[in-house]
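Protein record
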Amino acid sequence: MTVISLGGSIVAGEEINLEYILKFREFLQKYSKRYKFYVVVGGGKTARKYIMAGQKLKLNQYILDDMGILATRLNAYLLIGDYSYPKVAENIEEAFVAGKNYNVIVMGGTEPGHTTDAVSLLLAERAGERRVINMTSVGGIYDRDPKVHRDAKLIEYMSYEDAEKLFMERKMNAGLNIPFDLLSLKIAERSRIEIVIIGSEIRELEKVMNGEKYQGTVIGKSHDGHKEEK
């Protein structure tokens, strides 16, 4: 079983990335013959455009969150195929039950206040999976913003505690993002679910699944200087 949190900016940046979506669909079709996938898709620019419009109309935060959820589900529908559960699952339990009969289940957001990253962790928790693969446009956690600093170094391993501290340090600075929100980290920590953060390349995803060396960041439990082989 593999739980993937697919960043919305990968699927829907300035435009819908149809080329990438076709490749990801091919990946799901190929590997779903051997593996079960839960894929949670983010909102990307689709969500942000509607939320920004809603803010100008002075809609409250709950409604803005709900609009964002609808955008994530629009993006998620682009990954539905004859290899998958035939609709976008709207909550954790629906996705979990669908997984009994289908090898690919796709979903977006579920309720206001929860990011799709948090949804992916809750889904992993419900399904008993101990790892979530987070695919982002950044491809890991760096000591500095890699978009600004060319010499930024990838942090290959972080404990839950260190990731939480980093999030608190950076949350007020939009230029220094951490790919997971605090709620997601807390869910991961309580159930000891490992978070593997990689880029958008499907080959890197295959490497993670096959136990090969890959480029990215692992967030997991603390241990005395030991780091799992990547």
